[in-house]
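Review form for a predicted model. The reviewer records the input and the model, then writes brief findings.
Reviewer: anonymous (R2)
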Amino acid sequence: MKWTVHSERTLYQDQWVHLVSADVELPDGRHLDHRLMRSTAPSAGVVLLREGRVLLMWRHRFITDTWGWEIPIGGMNRGEVPVEAAARECEEETGWRPEGLRQLVYTQPSPGLMTSEHYVFLAESATYTGMPKDGFESERIEWVPLADIVTLIAKGDIVAGTTLVALLYAHATCSSAGERESG
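Model under review:
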C-alpha cells in the first residue's frame, strides 16, 4: 500500500541534513504529520579484505556514547561518483588506498526515517600510504579476521547498520583465498 505525500515543510536545514515535516495520507484516509530527514549526499564505504582479514576502525560514536568496529565510510563530494568517494574515504580514514574496487552492496539504512543511501565496495588489495589524514575518526585501525565477524556482532562490538550489512554480506559471499569461514 502506498502512502501519499500531500505537502512538506522544512523544519531545519544545514549543509548535512534537511529535517522535514510531511503531511502523509495513509491508504485508509488518515493523515500523519510525519518527520523525515533528507541527507545532502549519498555515502560510500569499503570492505577491504586481505588474506582473510577485513580492515576495520574502532571508533566512538558520541550520539549513542558507544564504541564499535566500523568499515571506513563517508560522504560523497559534489561531482564524485560512489567508487571514487569510497576509495578516498578509506584512504583518509585508514591510510590504506584500496585497489580494484567492485560494488558489494547498496543499502538504505533507515528508509522509514531518512533518505540516506550507502554504496559499499569490496577491494581485495590495497596500498598503505601512511597515517590516516582524518586521524580523529577512530582510536585504532586493525585487520580483523572475517571469520570473527559473527562473534563480534554477537558481542555487540559491531552495531552500525551499514557495517553490519556490508560485513555480513561479505562473510556470506566471499569465498576466495580463505576469506570465507568454513562450515
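Findings: Confidence is low (pLDDT under 50) at residues 176-183.
Further findings: Residues 82-94 form the longest helix (13 residues).
Recommendation: see findings above.
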